[in-house]
Amino acid sequence: MALSIAVEELILNNEKNLLARKSDWTRIPLGSIAKITNGYAFKSKHFVKEVSQGLPLIRIRDIKSSTTQVNYVGDFSEEYIVNNGDILIGMDGDFDISLWKGEKALLNQRVCKVVVNSAKYNNRFFYYILPGYLDAIHSATSSVTVKHLSSRDIEKILLPNPSLIDQESLAEVIETQFTRLDAAIKSLKTIKAKLEIYRQSVLKAAFQGNLLYKEVDKEKVSLLDAEFQMPRTWKLGKLSDLGEFGRGKSKHRPRDDKSLYGGKYPFIQTGDVRNAKTRIVNYSDTYNEVGLKQSKLWPTGTLCITIAANIADTAILDFDACFPDSVVGFCAKDSTTSYYVMYFIQFLQKIIDSQASATAQKNINLAVLEALDIPVLEIDEQKAIVNEIESRFSVIDKLEQTITTALLKAERLRKSILKAAFEGKLADPEKIVD
Questions:
Q1: Architecture, CATH, for domain 235-376
Q2: Adjacency order of strands within the sheet including 71-72
Q3: Which of 43, 218, 315, 363 has the highest Cβ tally under 10 A?
Q4: Closest Cα partner for 330 from 398, 252, 248?
Q5: 2-29: string of b/e by CB count within 10 Å (b at 16+)?
Q6: In CATH, what is the architecture of 9-161?
Q7: Nearest 5°: phi and psi at 119?
Q8: Each residue of 409-429: pLDDT tens digit?
Q9: Distance CA 363, CA 147 (A)
Q10: 305-323, pLDDT tens digit by residue?
Q11: Range of weakest confidence among 32-41, 156-165, 183-192, 211-220
Q12: Where in the chain is the domain with CATH 3.90.220.20?
């Protein structure tokens, strides 16, 4: 919770990476070139959802998105007004920094506004140089729960102090390179999005018979009120025709009772299913004998289907495990069938998700899966469909991995650009971005 070292000492002992500076640049305390305004604890009784009333209220969760969830209709002081382009810092958690891109708003508690004196320091250069110092403070801050940042510590940050002309020049070069880098990143993300569209088209083609048959007599079928074309020879049945399924168990309350955990039985939740790639190979929690007694151990090969929070995510267990009732387990009569059902649910995931009810969180009733029609095919035909899907998915997976690697390199390149700028030896933009 507390910073374990003086800010000045932290910086002077770590003049490298994003805390670096050119040898002939002096350092200057942030508090001498900028004014920090801490947010105010506005009373929640004056919060409203109607955007036509009052002013938007910027809470710490809103910093990155530049969008707000509530407006404030009570009295306020002018000092807490935030305008488009103001620099904001989150005082809890990750110590995020962002330029506010929204409309005129109010500054809530645990968020601070930094106004740079343009006669002493360049605002754009300040915005680029400060994150590295906030990250260093974050790393040196101990915590039991959430890390907290003090505005007094921000004021003590010793920033490099090149001439204003150099600051402006460096900010322009940084922005030029970032513009090019952002364009490359946007292109990569566009390609990644198109791969996801292609993934869905593969599933659609598979379950309309197009991957197995060039020409086949088809008929219209309705699945969850959506119409599709399927081979006339395919007969629809229920999941229960292909295996057994039921909800997971976690009867004890509260569910996070420490007395349930720390044993040898893997315990997975919806997030583990969502994060898995086809098979669940990792787990972070385990039940002990007490935990197992109030739950159920599902066998290796069980298909897990989420029905709460994130809807209809699927993955197959690589080990025996327990899971709560927010996950449905499907045990097929043949391992091929598990993959067949998994891909079929992925094919319909968006439709299933659209039918989920939302109270505190989205969820679907087990009856939705029980009522779901599915083509009940012979095992050889299931296997052929699975093979056709996976041969195409393997290509998609390799391309996605290449893109993911390129995106990680792009983020490292962003830091390299900043480091070179702060050391006063920014390389030729052509060489860096290429």
A1: Alpha-Beta Complex (3.90)
A2: 47-48, 71-72, 55-58, 105-107, 81-82
A3: 315
A4: 248
A5: ebeeebeebbeebeeebbbbeeebeeee
A6: Alpha-Beta Complex (3.90)
A7: -80, -15
A8: 999 999 999 999 999 887 444
A9: 32
A10: 999 988 999 999 999 999 9
A11: 211-220
A12: 9-161, 235-376
